Amino acid sequence: MKRVTFVFMLILPFLVGSQAVLAESAGKANAISVVKLSEGALPLDMSIAREVWASPQELLRVRLRIGFPINALLNQTIVYVNQQAQVNYILPINADWLEFGYTKLVVSDGARSLILPKDGVIIQIAATTSQLQELVAHAFQADPIHYHKIRTTQLPEGWSLVTEEYLPKGNISELERNLNGKIRTALVQEFIVRRLQIKVKCFHCDSDRTAEELADLLNHRHNPIVKTTAESSGSVVVSAESQDEELNSAALALANLKPNEVSRGSH
């Protein structure tokens, strides 16, 4: 398998003091060292064949290519039987660029790889098989919303991802006022399907009970135009919002919810 590369339609300008960033990158790379997979964290029969840190010159080229400033980048090659996975660890310069970079990578490269943010690092996983990609992804034990959301690799014909970003804390606080628990994180995906817009939201709650409450709350929202359908699986809730209930059901069918764990709130 060829080394993973990034392809972007847009290159966004940014201003970064190159010398300061390069001098700082060695220390910042510790964040990647904490997150990156080690042999002990991998499933049986899986091993790390190679690790390569980007040089200062490569970092500059990558920044221009991906369109946001980064402090460090590590590429890992993982082998499993006759299969291979490539993992890129990308460290943006701060939290603001983390969210921007995550959204940009998901929209531009999500059809070819799985993107996960963890502890300030953006992780990109590409593999020769979807099974291996899932095995590597779950080894990170990232926020569960990233294992339940709709993947761009799963989209049927006619579906396109417009954006994917974290829900503002103000929106989360508004929902929490009607719950007995807390929402830890929330992600919203926006799709265009046959000229119709649909929003799919993934919520990670502090307990299964809170997730069931949230699914029920969302299903009881009254809006004559926008219909909401929500399901919970463990501590995760996935909701779909559009003008078409059948489209909502199709979206939830694409979400990675295990049937034996799903609880649908009553309408």
UniProtKB/TrEMBL annotation:
Keywords: Signal. The keyword Signal applies. Residues 1-23 form the signal peptide. The keyword Signal applies. This is Pilus formation protein N-terminal domain-containing protein. It comes from Candidatus Abyssobacteria bacterium SURF_17.
